[in-house]
Design goal:
Blueprint: H1 24-29, H2 33-56, H3 60-64, H4 71-81, H5 87-112, H6 115-138, H7 162-185, E1 191-193, E2 198-200, H8 212-223, H9 227-240, E3 248-250, H10 251-269, H11 272-285, E4 299-301, E5 307-308, E6 318-319, H12 320-323, H13 327-337, H14 341-355, E7 366-367, E8 378-379, H15 386-398, H16 404-420, E9 422-424, E10 430-432, E11 434-436, E12 439-441, E13 443-445, H17 450-459, H18 467-486, E14 496-500, E15 503-506, H19 520-532, H20 535-551, E16 553-554, E17 557-558, H21 577-590, E18 602-604, E19 610-612, H22 622-628
Helix pairs in contact: 7-21, 8-9, 8-10, 8-21, 10-11, 11-13, 13-14, 15-16, 17-18, 17-19, 18-19, 19-20, 19-21
Bound molecules: 1-deoxymannojirimycin (DMJ).
Length: 630
């Protein structure tokens, strides 16, 4: 007779057993389910009983006055409970008891102390914890020894002409006023409120207090020879700059201002601390790339590593100018750390973009990091698009012109932009409009004015020997942007200006009439000056510097103004960190000789932080790098 087959929980059939096959393991398999359940119940009841006896039966060690962890006590406990718990459990239990008694004793002693004694004790404890934390923070992460690329022209630039020297001194004085005011009223905060005379911050820095102005200003201070101020900033960074904070920051902004600022400070001064901090920050930014496509989120929480996108961006998209403006800093991070991840992340973005269709050859500003699809078909050389194009060109320049893929991508993009976005107004002003779903909006932003400098910088090496054409295009954009300044009451440029219905290079809407100490127009003047030495660029730069000093300077620093067309403007009460990083630096360079930061050796990131040229081979072979870099 065969017993019916049993169906185990897994659902797989167990073969029927013959009566002679009743050895122990097989016999267990033949038990009925209900029998198994009863056995299990009995077993668990027994275990519970043992535990209960072990923990809750009276402990005679106290009665006997025997120390809890004595060997005799262990034996007695075993006998008492009637079961045999392993001695590790007993040792653990006894240790808990000893600790408990010690804590009770300490508490009793504490209660005997006076309030003042207790306070002093707490204070000592606190300082010890702070000291320990500091020590922990100070231990730098060991980084591989990497040769310092040859850095040239960091201390030069004295102009020969006395009037130019005077102007340069004035710019240095403005820098000192901006820095000293921040030092006095906003130290350690991200930015300064120069009228309220207190710290300021915006959502790009989350709720952090990371001294953005200090980091952003360092290399300007260094170039200007303000070495005490530089040292002061360095000390703050050594002691306070900590990126392990629960703050949701903009990946782009923090990269261009902090990573770029720290790397530049490192290359200029050779101080290791800046390199270490830059790498610590970079590690915190990496989780932003954890998306289905590898296109990073716009924001990342520095502590948790959780990323997300701006709520206002089209269909949950990441922004072209944000994920497309990481290349320069990330290449240097790979060089300095030997960690290929940084380089791979930015190259992955480039490859992904190269595979995508581009409407009319244009790159839309929005790309969804989950689906890898474009959002709205808007293209801009101003906000949301600008520095993506800038970094393609600068990737090529920074690689000592070896990254020809970047150059080709730049050339193709600019060709499409010229075809669809660049026009001449009736009054003969060349402008770069905004492309919105096949329609050209005849409006240009202050941000777009940087493109004059970019065209000039990219002239050399342009295809079909169009260098002259791009230098001319740069000059035309510089002229248009100068007009946007010249047509205002304050001689400062508005945020955006139109080329419509008889109006040219002027803002129409009230909310486009502000000037927030932005650098782009002065940046273009500087590049144009370097490539042409036409004195008008120094003249225009000086006009802007004077207007800033006259209308934006207050006793507590420099402030943006709300309406450049009003002779009685109100202030926005913000001294932006990029005013010290970019606006004043470009002005200073404009009135320096060309041997300060020569463009053959340095490439400025989009926040005006200079990074040395790094031949592509440097990423794989440090030795060849040293002989190649000039
Ligand atoms: C800066 O932070 C950078 O130049 C960025 O690329 C664009 N805008 C600001 C200054 O206007």
């Amino acid at each position: 007779m065969t017993t019916p087959a049993l169906l185990p929980l897994s659902g797989r059939r167990i073969p029927t057993l013959s009566p002679g096959a009743a050895s122990f393991p097989h016999h267990r398999a033949t038990l009925r389910l209900s029998e198994k359940f009863i056995l299990l119940l009995i077993l668990s009841a027994f275990i519970t009983l043992c535990f209960g006896a072990f923990f809750f039966l009276p402990d005679n060690s106290k009665h006997n006055g025997v120390r809890a962890n004595s060997v005799s006590n262990v034996t007695r406990t075993e006998t008492w409970s009637g079961c045999s718990p392993c001695s590790a459990w007993v040792i653990l239990r006894d240790k808990i008891r000893v600790d408990h008694e010690r804590a009770l004793q300490e508490a009793k002693e504490k209660l005997r102390k006076s309030r003042d004694e207790l306070r002093a004790e707490i204070q000592t404890e606190k300082s010890k914890v702070v000291e320990d934390l500091k020590k922990k923070k100070e231990v730098p992460k060991p980084l591989p020894p990497v040769p310092m690329p040859k850095v040239v022209g960091v201390n030069d630039g004295d102009p020969v002409e006395p009037d130019v020297k005077e102007k340069r001194d004035k710019i240095r004085e403005m820098m000192k006023h901006a820095w000293d005011s921040y030092r006095q009223y906003g130290w350690g905060h991200n930015e300064l409120k120069p009228l309220a005379k207190k710290g300021h911050s915006t959502n790009i820095f989350g709720n952090s207090q990371m001294g953005a102005t200090i980091v952003d200003a360092l290399d300007s201070l260094y170039m200007m020879g303000l070495h005490d101020e530089f040292k002061d900033g360095q000390e703050w960074i050594e002691q306070n700059l900590d990126f392990s904070v629960n703050a949701e920051v903009s990946v782009f902004e923090v990269n261009i201002r902090f990573t770029g600022g720290l790397l530049a400070a490192y290359y200029l001064s050779g101080q290791e601390v800046f390199k270490v901090k830059a790498v610590q920050l970079a590690e915190k930014l990496l989780p932003a790339f954890n998306t289905p496509t590898g296109i990073p989120w716009a924001m990342v929480n520095l502590k948790s590593g959780v990323g997300r996108n701006w709520g206002w961006a089209s269909a949950g998209s990441s922004i072209l100018a944000e994920f497309g403006t990481l290349h320069m800093e990330f290449v240097h991070l790979t060089y300095l750390t030997g960690n290929p991840a940084y380089y791979q992340k930015v190259m992955h973005i480039r490859k992904l973009l190269a595979k995508m269709d581009r409407p009319n050859g244009l790159y839309p500003n929005y790309l969804n990091p989950r689906t890898g699809r474009w959002g709205q078909h808007h293209t801009s050389v101003g906000g949301l698009g600008d520095s993506f194009y800038e970094y393609l060109l600068k990737a090529w320049l920074m690689s000592d012109k070896t990254d020809t893929e970047a150059r080709k991508t730049y050339d193709d993009a600019i060709e499409a932009i010229e075809r669809h976005l660049i026009r001449k107004s009736n009054g003969g002003l060349t402008f770069i409009g905004e492309w919105k779903n096949g329609h050209l909006e005849r409006k240009m932003g202050h941000l777009t004015c940087f493109a004059g400098g970019m065209f000039a910088l990219g002239a050399d090496g342009s295809p079909d020997d169009k260098a002259g054409h791009y230098l001319q295009l740069g000059a035309e954009i510089a002229h248009t942007c100068h007009e946007s300044y010249d047509r205002t009451v304050l001689k400062l440029g508005p945020e955006a200006f139109k080329f419509d219905s008889g109006l040219e290079a002027v803002a129409v809407r009230q909310n486009e009439k502000y000037y927030i100490l932005r650098p782009e127009v002065i940046e273009t003047y500087w590049y144009m000056w370097r490539f042409t030495h036409d004195p008008k660029y120094r003249q225009w730069g000086w006009e802007a510097a004077q207007a800033i000093d006259k209308y934006c300077r207050v006793s507590g620093g420099f402030s943006g103004v709300k309406d450049v067309y009003s002779s009685n403007p109100t202030y926005d009460d913000v001294q932006q960190s990029f005013f010290l990083a970019e606006t004043l630096k470009y002005l200073y360079l404009l009135f320096s000789s060309d041997d300060l930061m020569p463009l053959e050796s340095w490439v400025f990131n989009t926040e005006a932080h200079p990074l040395p040229v790094l031949h592509s081979s440097c990423l794989v072979n440090f030795c060849s790098c040293l002989s190649i870099n000039h």
